Fold each of these.
Amino acid sequence: MRGATQAKWAACAVAVALTATACGGGGGGGSGIVGSSWGDPQNPLEPANTNEVQGGKVLDMIVRGLKRYDPKTGEAKDMIAESIVTKDSQNFTVKIKDGWKFSNGEKVTAKSFVDAWNYGAHLKNNQKNSYFFGYIEGYDKVHPEKGDATADTLSGLKAVDERTFTVKLTQKFSTWPDTLGYPAFAPLPKAFFDNRDAWLAKPVGNGPYTVKSYQKGSRMELRKWDGYSGDDKAENGGVDLKVYTDNNSAYTDLMAGNLDLVDDVPASQLKNVKSDLGDRYINTPAGIIQTLAFPFYDSKWNKAGMDKVRRGLSMAINREQITDTIFQKTRTPAKDWTSPVLGDDGGYSDSVCGDACTYDAARAKKLVKDGGGIPGGTLRVSYNSDTGSHKEWVDAVCNSINRALGNDKACVGNPIGTFADYRSKASQQKLDGAWRAGWQMDYPLIQNFLAPVYYTDAPSNDGKYSSEEFDKLVDRANAETDTAKAVATFRDAEKVLAKDMAAIPLWYQNGSAGYSDRVSDVALNQFSVPVYEKIKAD
Amino acid sequence: MGRYVARRLLQMIPVFIGTTLLIFLMVNALPGDPVKALWGDKPPDPAQVAQIKHDRGLDLPLWEQYLHYMKGLFQGDFGNTIAGNRPILDEITQAFPVSMRLAAMAWTFELVVGITLGVIAGVRRGRIIDTTVTFFTLIVISVPIFVFGLGFQLIFGNELGWVKPTVQDSESFQQLMLPALVLGLVGLAYVARLTRTSIKENRSADYIRTAVAKGLPRRRIISRHLLRNSLIPVVTYLGTDIGALMGGAVITEGIFNVSGVGNLLYLGISRREGAVIVGIVTVLVIVYLLASLLVDLLYAVLDPRIRYA
């Protein structure tokens, strides 16, 4: 009897251990396969629903759109598009190349785009990137700000024949074709609309890779697709994406040879990364700028002279020192309100902020005094304290300001417990003083760095900055048919920001990655996504 | 016996409702809006926020949300995630087997090694082996778990290369060995100490002296008489530890990249997926309750003096 009880116990433990099997999964990557770190994408992997890097990695491998941004120059180059023509910057005719296929054999047609865009725009599909389609006529019907949709499809979107479709925008937007490199504009096969759940479990696209297996929350295996129609064929046999919740574990695995590519080097390892990896560590600018935003809705910050105070504060921040010591050079001191990934032709300027972005304690002190001093005597810089270790740099910025102004109480950090709380406070204009702000580009155009953030009542204009002069220049630039002229006009608009010091540019964020000696030709694109198809693996 | 079990099972209902309600309220009391946070730094789309809230029933009053949730729960529906509208049951059934495997290994390790060490130390009280066991278990209890986790990972994974530093395949016993060892370490120390103290106390009991006087072999005295009567506090600890091992492995699972319950819980909290957190806690509460019932029933097996009417 007693013996039986004990045996039962042992049997139970073994049974639990043995029957507790669910998902399969092989070992590390084989020959020609790149093992890469991944994070579990929060949203389903639909092109118009992916707004962060982790889902972006997959989409960048399995889908191709009309255009694709050159990973080096950021230029929007034709991919599936044969031509996109317009006479008035508002009506566009898109012609696609012949011969493109999805990996399930379906042809990529004009309808694949029109259906995908209609799906992405419609309110009932809850796609996070819906606003990308906001420039297309009829968007307010399929995606009203309040209430139910009154139309099923975008009225400005029409398939003409198998390889042609037309797009009508609600306003003139000359550089609109250059926005089409974002995965949100990718085509979708009929298989997606027939059975969405099956597609999400194993996405089918038209890119250089196909999904071999996908276990949500743990790993995805992608393999080179030999039938791929484009000329950017994969240089390796495939990519195994492996989910890590802690990027320190990923780094440990890279060191132990279990992983080939880590695209987010943990902050705690930045000190050793040079000695650990040597030149197998890359650190390149991404399309992200970080700024300090101000409450223009508060009359104290909107009165005459405050531009001087903001300029003075900007000059009191020692950007070089902070990016060196706190960020180990994974940030680059900002010199404008855009990003170096745009390139000089795209509108980046290293002189538009000029002296105002250069540390000068004496002038900073004078400017703040001339402008009437900091409202309330103390500048509170709000940030969320749960993610992203913002405390370190906010404290460093405040120390720098306090030292420059010779006043220990000039600036203090104001931590807010959670990201969700911080965001709702910022978007409801409930913050006083400055707050950490930033902009991650949707597409590498100067338009995207300026219009959504500083245009009057623009969706991301949390500080409610408003300048008639700026708005006029943005309108004019959008209507300009010649790209070079449009960029020049946007630059003029940016000069208005510099004059008003609408937000203090702090630094550009870099993307960082480390890789093993098994792989070569690793690079990150402007969205900090590794350019997987170019990686060579032994 | 049957009536006792029935009574205990009935008692579980209020405990179950109380804990789920408490967690539900706590998750909802966190500041900020999880739906709006889906958009990150970008401005949320008010129409979609309203629609997602409506779809997931997040626009209802809190008590109604709770009722809906409980109603679904009793029908085996754990609700859907806010972000992907994915059934939470899928995520739970994916994560639990992994954690169960890890917990079973850690638990077996605690049981076998812990009791063995405890018996040796208790029987050879005051000798060098006793001092050594006491000393090392004290160290294990006082050092935080992540120190062992990272330390073992560095030594056995990176330096010596005996095992892979992280778990590549959650079905491989060999790869789960190291995380299981780390996870079971603290429990092992407690089990060893509890066994040792209990054995030490019972050694001078009358029935042991009787057994010795009868001339029974030493091995039999220890295993049949001494150990069995000393196991009650140890069994109590081991029972409650099953739940703790499954739900409390957040740090260990993070270090060794095991995609189990701990990881899921961590993601749920950082993404403010209230239903995921409540769902996991619900399952863990059931595990705890059943384990403690089992422990109580085992008392009667171990000690014939205990009877359940």
Note: DSSP finds 18 helices and 19 strands in chain A.
Amino acid sequence: MAPIAATTGPAHTRIMGMGSYRPKRLVPNSEVVDAIASSDEWIQQRSGIKTRRWAGPEESVQMMSVEASRIAIERAGLEVGQIDCVVVATVSHLLQTPAVATAIAHELGTDGAAAFDISAACAGFCHGIAMASDMVRAGSATHVLVVGVERLTDILDLTDRGTAFIFADGAGAAVVGPSDTPGIGPVVWGSDGEQFDLIRQREDWRDVVGTETQPGSGVMPHLTMQGNPVFRWASFAMAKIGQQALDAAGVSIDELDVFVPHQANMRIIDAMARSMKLPATVRIARDVADQGNTSAASVPLALDRMMLEGEARSGDTALLIAFGAGLAYAAQVVTVP
Amino acid sequence: MATTEEIRADLADIVNEVAGVDADDVQLDKSFVDDLDVDSLSMVEVVVAAEEKFGVTIPDDEVKNLKTVGDAVAFIERSQG
């Protein structure tokens, strides 16, 4: 047996820079209420959402990702050539292969960086941060670009009362690299495939196309969601996961400065905060009110906004937690760059 | 064994904490939705808090049958019994 060389990397990692792209078009509740026979008041009461951002034709998954990534790389103080791996979390890049990460890596001008997509729905960004941190620590990569991006409007049924007012578009990016001190805590993650159907693409692509004997539906297989069970799982089971991520990082809840949960719904954010008994001093991301739920993009968009608005300052300790279809979830404590 | 009134009072505290409803308004004949303005998401929170408080399990399928405070109190009493 020939000996195989092993690599090692730095002991610690951190998020070096964040960036985001928000689609230009701001869509108020008044634009979505007629198709779902609802009202601005009902939507706000159920979700806290006042407006959302929907992408225009030119704001593709790739375009939004590249814009967010350029900002993140610049804020990290790096040249694009120093990025040697690109991880893109998305469920709404509708070309199944190749991975959009390869096109993003190329358009950014990386030097042939490793590039691939991951499918963990709303939990994708926190999965990406965990993988990036581990890749750097293992010596597989030095600077990893992690992108969370969605164009959910492409798979949104505008007549579905359970989803039409919730989902939105956008991109967030982070650069993960080496650090002298731990800047990314241990990930707490998992899945519960028994609840596979709670949030899902309604049908398989083959059912859309059909067969000789079974005609296809011919319509886009939209997202569906069973709101109340998801609310219960997200608000309570995920609050426990958040606490586990704090415990894994050795950070007490009183030492936490910033809480950035997946921006699913303001009611979930409030219920999680209550369930976790977050001290009043912890600043909580509430980007969902203006941006809607952007799935994999929601955590980086929300954190970046808090940094821009001074609610999250460099060196602050933040708890990130993302959860969604699968059901899949991931959480970690990070130092704000 | 808790009395009906003790369960109602504890449940009233939960409804007050979750939905901001005055605990004195949470009486057995009151409908969660129509009288107390507790919507389905708040109801999920009430149910989870009640499960912890009373040590019972309230399945999702059962929640839709709990229309009044009295329905919920009776379910908790049966489950504890």
Note: Chain A touches chain B at residues 45-46, 227-229, 231-232, 235-236, 267, 271 (CB under 8 Å).
Amino acid sequence: MQAVEVRDLRKDYGAQKAVQGISFGVREGEIFGLIGPNGAGKTTTLRIVSTLLSMTSGSVRVFGHDVATESDAVRRILSYLPEEAGAYRNLTGRAYLEFIARFFGNGEKVKDMVERGVEIADLGERINDKISTLSKGMTRRLLVGRALMTDPKLAVLDEPTSGLDVINAREIRGIIRNSTKGGRAVLLSSHNMLEVELLCDRIALIHEGRIVEAGSPAELKGKYAAGNIEDVFAEVVKWASATS
Amino acid sequence: MGIRNIIGKEVRELLTPQTLIPIVIVAVIFAMMGGVIGDIGEEVTQRPVIGVVDQDEGELSQIAGSVLGAAARVVHSGTDVAEGLRRTEEGGGVALLVFPPEFSERILGGEPGTIEIHWIMRGLGMMDSISSAPVEGLILAVNNALTVALIEGNVPLNPEVILHPTTRSDTTLVKGKTISGVPPSAIANTLMSQSIMIPLLVMMLMMMAGSTVISSMGLEKENKTLETLLTMPVSRGSIVTGKIVGSAAVGLVMALIYMLGFSFYMRSFQMGAIDLGQYGLALGVLDYLLVGVSLFLALLAGLALCIVLGTFARDYRSAQTLLFPITAMAMIPMFLIMFKDFATVSLGLQAILFLIPFSHPMMAMRALMFDEYPLVLGGIAYSAVFSAVVIAMAVRIFKSDRLLTGGTPRRQRAARARRRTP
């Protein structure tokens, strides 16, 4: 079964066509990256997969569940980390994790989830401090912990390491990589090409709402005779801009 | 140059339709209230409208009758009290003055004669009792005329009786109930706590709970927590309900604390209060239940409306501005019900009062005292429908893209319209 199956997805905001008929699939156990310039339609696509936005046409299925008609079922197996996510500033880090965990279970299950979240966030004693007192990087770690503590079948991560320093970002990438064990899948978006290259099994390049290139990092580097994904990205965007 | 630039920026930022519209609407509300109070002032300065029943038909009662005929507009003169009450009420009168048999004989016998005043009280607002003041003046004029007549006639009486030839007994007819021995001012004074406290409590409750729920929406957007919340495995209906119930609880606590202090202040005005229970005006368990239901539904309606308004908030600051329609909707009925009764305002104002769900708990307790069940039950039914419709609307908005995209921008709608135009 495909973890995510997107077919001819279109999304219009009035006259603006944000997504113009994209199709791609994410396999179980795979990390799939969506990359593209600002305003290309990445976040809109991630929000549609996460049941936050409706689609104009097309279909999206998550582990066989249609996001349009079975959104409740999708939300039970999915976790979404928005790019600019925040947390309730008056709660402590631990209370925030407990608040989220209670949507997914109760009793021991909540306790286990929270402990996993605390472990991923790795904030030490600061987990018991109010979120308003945490730094931007600490808050992001807490949010990554929140997103992965529920052991989601699909994690949708928009710029997962945004705001983190090199060491923290590296640790979080390791956690994301480990999270796909047991058939779990990750769909992520990032502007950090090194991150994409290190993490993703396959990537798709979006430009002006269309997928203009897709493949594994190695395939793409070979196809464009490029030393890294950043060069591939620059080449593809240049070509797509010229032909659009 | 620099300071002008800063002033210009500040003015542009602060002088927006969002800041101006509330001020304009408050000004309009005060102008409307001025009109209502002005009308009441006119009522006071006009000649009082009364009925007179003379069962004595003696020399002194006839003098009193002629004084009343000159100083008041008498809509009924006769000898039957029941008919007099009916015709005075139909004629818009505020009181029926009854001179009982042997009125003149008693005075001439050296005892004060009794004038029975049957007050016709149409409403229980603070301004509704004003109309009784001119009638008090009439009684004084009658007393003076009788004193003059007794002096001119050289009637050998105790000077005390000559100076004070009458006593009075008050009976107040209010909304179909007869309260003997109590003038309207005492009833109005006793009900003042309800006239002021209940509308104020409801208004404070609406504003505090409303502010909590709208701020919560604004904070969800400002702190970027809404997207996460909307991907949780919980129905949109539960999110809306949770926000409403949580905010209602917080608003209730805040309003109770506020009103506790205010009730101590109001106790100082409770001098001369009467026990309404002995006149059949006490509320039963069912009545209190109905008041509770009415308050709960009004709160539900208000908070559902706040959730809908909150979806337009961009951040905490803009959320506070969005509270204004709720404030206006709470203040209009509060002032109207404080000063006037539902029965004594114009049909247009009655319609406005009925359509605003917050009016119903403000009016419920007073209405139930006088067995006006259709008004209370109708208000409950209306508030229930209003709440259901607005909650459905809120859930619909939560299911749509509006919360994250803020709706379709105007220029995009215009572009679509241009495309549709051939």
Note: The two ends of chain A are 35 Å apart (CA to CA).
